[in-house]
Model the fold of this input.
Amino acid sequence: MLRFTLVYLLTLGCLSSFGQQSATNIRVFEPDQPETISRHIYGHFAEHLGRCIYDGFYVGEGSPVPNTAGIRNDIVDALRALEIPNLRWPGGCFADTYHWKDGIGPKADRPTIVNTWWGGVTEDNSFGTHDFLNLCELLETEPYISGNVGSGTVQELADWVQYTNFDGKSPMSDLRRENGRDKPWKVKYWGIGNEAWGCGGHMRPEYYADIYRKYATFLSDSGIEGGLYKIASGASDDDYNWTEVLMKNIPHDMLQGVALHHYSVIDWSDKGSSVDFDESEYFQTMQRSWLMEELIEKHTAIMDRYDPQGRVDLVVDEWGGWYDVVDGTNPGFLFQQNTMRDAMIAGLVLNIFNNHADRVKMANLAQTVNVLQAVILTDEEKMLLTPTYHVMHMYKVHQDATLLDTEVESPVYALDGEDLPAISVSASRDDQGKVHISLVNIDASRSHPVSLNLKGLVSGDMDAAILRSGNLQDHNTFDNPEKIKPVSFRDFRFRNGMLTASLPPFSVLVFSEN
Ligand code: AHR
Done:
């Protein structure tokens, strides 16, 4: 049983008898039952949406931007440095409109399509199955393909699986070979539709559960070690009935993961600016981000009832901040800036995922390039790494590490009569035996001293890195792309297993045993 305890003090910080803020005690300790933080929690998402694929990842072979088969080399390098474990494609809502056979064969012969969900733009299908799977090979990442259930057929999806995975002779593997690829890519992760309750077909959960069973029946496991990993289109936010109906009505040997989508959005009809926001908006974004904790606990409780052995995973395959688009950009392209607020979302939510590593085995930040909470922004030949990228980079030490238990009595971050825990933490031990602790202080104005009890856990010394900036609204620009980046943090004491430090306002820190 994992133990992650968060208690938060209902006072505005604790004052010692000398009038100084006393330190928050954080205990880190070995779990009773070791649990691995799946590296797949650190997954990404690339949809045919706005400038994520076209004019993002993919610039085409004739582009002056250095590329490999049309894929930008600088993006590949940046994502390789993140060690991204998986990449979800082609949607999102787009997935349920996508017919994969339109995107294979000579590019000049491919039909155009209209992207009805995102801006009504015409696409020439020059980025298709081969382009995506070859990109995944360049990135050394696992592809996660979302299949078309809403407007496709069972045969179409079964053919796609055969095309990508079958090594022997068959109609689809012959077609793949005709298109220049001999060996199959062996795609393990398949989504059976996306947001079936909404853009994926406005289905009721009972109907979708039956549809899922039919699709899952005809997707061949052939050539995939351990079989395909099939993911059911999951609930939005607190739609607990959706999870309940799926867990009850789909045989668990047909189901490896159930999805969940939750965005840190203030109000769907008035999302606010990504850059020009006040503290009240910031606070609301943090409330929506902390909500991930409650959502995971409640969806997990339902899954526990139907699957006490924990065989079916929770896959949070869309998460992140969502604001109004940047002025002057296409409203259907979902282009937003990425500030220190987004770094707080990332640090906090990734800590939540780590701490729920027993059920959350996969997650996908929306989206990788130029869309929503992107880790990379591009402008013609220029590229920048966002604060969110840097959090992902700092946290990669947790990938496939063993989760350590933590106990924290967090002070509160309060605004207008409401409060939240100011501090979030998660910790792990990597395969070299080194301990890593990630800490986030979301408080907009107050530093919080912390005292971490690491007795018996750490034998070496500790190093630390910090991501911070002067203003919550700060972000990297193409003129100043390195304004925000992690720097070494030395302002801490580590003696006799006790680590003390003061966490600056809205900062993310990772302490690592060296
Ligand atoms: O990530 C953008 C969109 O958000 C996805 O296409 C959809 O699944 C969700 O509603």
Notes: Residues 9-19 have pLDDT under 50 and may be disordered.
